[in-house]
Each structure stands twice: as structure tokens, then as C-alpha cells.
């Protein structure tokens, strides 16, 4: 198991001003960081990799469709092509970071709704987009781990059952799934049972409390979740994803209207202890 921390707590674009954060996370005991990529070039992320390596860490990458102009399930070919071009750029940046993991909800723009569930046409378009993305990712040695969101953020994939159907339809060995405990707390009747049912496709996990705050302070079924992961042989990243109000636009998108924790330092220091303790207890 590798413990990670998602830098979306501080930024959606990692630059030199964020390098001290990477050093602090390394000193706190994390094995790696999750780098959000929505902009930038491969050359930029080669510089970021140097800092990651200098601190003895490795990394994963997270992304999402940047706006409504990038939509894999749109009936407009231009918007679908924009989405694919964006994914290819992010994959190239992931390769520059020497990461083998790119995760996120890259099947629709977050917060875009049609008023109904996904149509068959949208499912087919999403499969086409995913296959083309996975083919590009395979050349870069990258696995794509698709994430379902809750019903208030997306409509296309909102459960692990839906993710499993999508992964099967794509049918690519490097197109897998991730499990986010925040979204599962809303959408899955039994998150631990959902992990067991779909463990064969889960290759990445976000550790996120029911209120997006400090893991262990909320009401998620952590004992059941960690037991389900460890008892089924999961041995990849457990990455904390928590959100604050540092980025106004992102806070608005994730509906963070109040401070949920006293400081980022308290969050990541308590979070790493929590992951290690829960993992040991589940053994």
C-alpha cells in the first residue's frame, strides 16, 4: 500500500510556489503526491518531477474535463474532439511525470446535466472517447482509472455498477476504475460491499471523508472500507482527497462553503496517521 495526498487542496496547477508543500508531505510520511493536471506542458511537469524525486516520492495524476467545450458525450463532434485532444495532452504530461496512473471523471464536464440519465448514444460516445484515450495512454505506459461522481456533480457515471458496465464496454486492459469514498458514501448503499463486488477493476482509491475534511472525523464506514480493500488484496494507492476554500472557483464547484478543518497541516498530519492505523488494523 502507498499513501498519497492530492494537491488539489492547494492548487489546480502545480508550480514552483507549491514545491515546499511537496517537501512537507514527504516529511509527514507520505509515499507520494497526486498532481492535478488541467493545464501546462510536458516540459513543465519534467521540472515538477525533479522536485518529487528529490523528496523521495512518486506520483499519480488526476484530471477532469475543464469546461463544457470539452465534452466526450456531446452530439457535437468538435466538442468530442476537444475532449480527446485534452486527454492526450494530459496523458503526455502524465508520462513526463513518469507516472503510470491517470485518474478522474473524464467522461463529462463536472456539473453539466441533461435532466436525465445517460442515453445509449452518450454511452457509445463515451466508449469511443475512452478507447481512443486508452490507446494513447497505453503507448505512454499509463493506466486510466475512471471515477464515478455523486448525482449532484454528474449524471453519466454515479455508481460502481455504472463504472463496471463502462469499463467492460471499453474493453481495454489499461482502462480501469477508481473508488472514491466521498462519492460512495452518497451513492452506494454499502460502500464496503461495493468494493468487494468490483475489486477486480479497482486500481486506485481516494480516501475522502463524508464532508471532504479530515479522514476519520466523519461517519464513513472506515473499518469496513479498509477491511474490504485489504482482505481482497488491494495494494495500490490510498490517496487523501480533501477540499478547502483556497481556490474560490474550485470551492464553489465542490460546494465548500465553510472551513471543514483547522489547517492543511493538521489535515495531512492526522490523515497519514489515520491511513497507516486503519491499514494495520485491517490486516
Please characterize this protein's 3D structure:
With 283 residues, this protein is an alpha/beta fold. Helix content is 43%, strand content 14%. The protein has a single domain (2-281), classed as Divalent-metal-dependent TIM barrel enzymes (TIM Barrel). The protein has ten helices and eight strands. The chain has an eight-stranded parallel β-barrel with strand order 1-2-3-4-5-6-7-8, surrounded by six helices. The longest helix has 20 residues, at 77-96. The chain is globular, with a radius of gyration of 18 Å. The relative contact order is 0.13.
DSSP strand tally: 8
Element-by-element helix/strand order: EHEHEHEHEHEHHEHEHH
Q: Can you say what the CATH homologous superfamily is?
A: Divalent-metal-dependent TIM barrel enzymes
Provide the spatial order of strands within the biggest beta sheet.
1-2-3-4-5-6-7-8
Contiguous runs where pLDDT drops below 50 for at least 5 residues: none
In terms of DSSP E residues, the strand content is 5-15%
Main β sheet profile: 8 strands, parallel, barrel
**Gyration radius, to the nearest Å?**
18 Å
Structural class: alpha/beta
Q: Alpha-carbon distance between the termini?
A: 12 Å
Which topology does CATH recognise? TIM Barrel
pLDDT averaged residue by residue? 96
Shape: globular
Give the domain tally: 1
Helical stretch tally: 10
Amino acid at each position: 500500500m502507498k499513501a498519497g495526498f492530492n494537491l488539489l487542496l492547494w492548487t489546480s496547477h502545480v508550480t514552483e510556489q507549491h514545491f515546499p508543500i511537496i517537501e512537507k508531505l514527504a516529511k509527514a510520511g507520505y509515499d507520494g503526491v497526486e498532481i492535478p493536471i488541467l493545464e501546462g506542458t510536458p516540459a513543465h511537469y519534467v521540472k515538477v518531477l525533479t522536485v518529487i524525486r528529490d523528496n523521495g516520492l512518486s506520483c499519480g495524476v488526476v484530471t477532469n474535463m475543464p469546461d463544457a467545450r470539452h465534452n466526450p458525450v456531446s452530439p457535437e463532434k468538435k466538442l468530442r474532439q476537444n475532449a480527446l485532444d485534452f486527454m492526450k495532452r494530459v496523458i503526455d504530461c502524465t508520462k513526463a511525470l513518469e507516472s503510470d496512473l491517470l485518474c478522474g471523471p473524464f467522461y463529462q464536464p463536472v456539473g453539466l446535466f441533461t435532466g436525465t440519465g445517460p442515453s445509449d448514444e452518450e454511452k457509445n460516445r463515451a466508449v469511443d472517447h475512452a478507447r481512443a484515450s486508452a490507446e494513447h495512454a497505453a503507448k505512454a505506459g499509463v493506466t486510466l482509472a475512471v471515477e464515478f461522481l455523486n448525482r449532484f456533480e454528474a449524471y453519466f457515471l454515479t455508481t460502481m455498477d455504472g463504472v463496471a458496465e463502462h469499463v467492460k464496454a471499453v474493453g481495454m486492459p489499461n482502462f480501469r476504475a477508481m473508488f472514491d469514498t466521498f462519492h460512495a458514501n452518497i451513492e452506494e448503499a454499502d460502500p464496503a460491499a461495493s468494493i468487494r463486488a468490483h475489486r477486480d477493476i479497482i486500481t486506485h482509491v481516494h480516501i475522502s471523508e463524508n464532508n471532504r475534511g479530515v479522514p476519520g472525523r466523519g461517519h464513513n464506514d472506515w473499518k469496513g472500507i479498509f477491511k474490504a480493500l485489504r482482505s481482497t488484496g488491494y495494494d495500490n494507492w490510498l490517496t487523501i482527497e480533501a477540499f478547502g476554500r483556497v481556490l474560490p472557483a474550485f470551492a464553489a464547484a465542490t460546494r465548500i462553503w465553510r472551513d471543514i478543518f483547522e489547517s492543511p497541516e493538521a489535515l495531512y498530519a492526522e490523515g497519514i496517521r489515520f491511513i497507516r492505523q486503519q491499514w494495520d488494523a485491517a490486516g
